Amino acid sequence: MPGQWEFQVGPSVGIEAQDHIWCARYLLEGIIEQAGVVLTLDPKPIEGDGNGAGCHTNCRVRDEEAKEVSVGSGFCGFKPVI
Tens digit of pLDDT for each residue in 37-64? Predict the structure, then answer.
C-alpha cells in the first residue's frame, strides 16, 4: 500500500504494553502534525478488495519457560486464545 509505514514499541510486560502504545500514538500524531501530512489508523483505509493493513498490533504471549503460547494479530491485535 503506498505510503504505508510501521513502527514498533516494546518489549513490554502487562498493562505497560498498552501504555507504551498510547504514548507512541500520541507522539506519532504530534510528529505527523508538524510534518503537515495525513495520518489514518483505520484498519482498512482504502475501500475494496485490497490490503487491509491499516491500524493493527501484533502481540506475543509467552509462558514462564519462554515458550510461545499464542500470537494475536486480528482486528486491533485481538484474537481468541484457544
Answer: 887 777 666 677 766 665 666 666 665 6
Q: How far apart are CA 61 and CA 66, in angstroms?
A: 9
In a domain, 68, yes or no: yes
- For the question of whether the overall pTM of this predicted structure is more than 0.70, the answer is no
- Please state the domain count of the chain: 1
Higher per-residue pLDDT: 67 or 47: 47
Name which of 4, 1, 2, 12 is nearest 58 in CA terms: 12
Q: Which DSSP letter does residue 18 get?
A: H
Question: What is the span of the domain harbouring residue 28?
Answer: 15-77
Closest CA to 4 of 39, 28, 29: 39
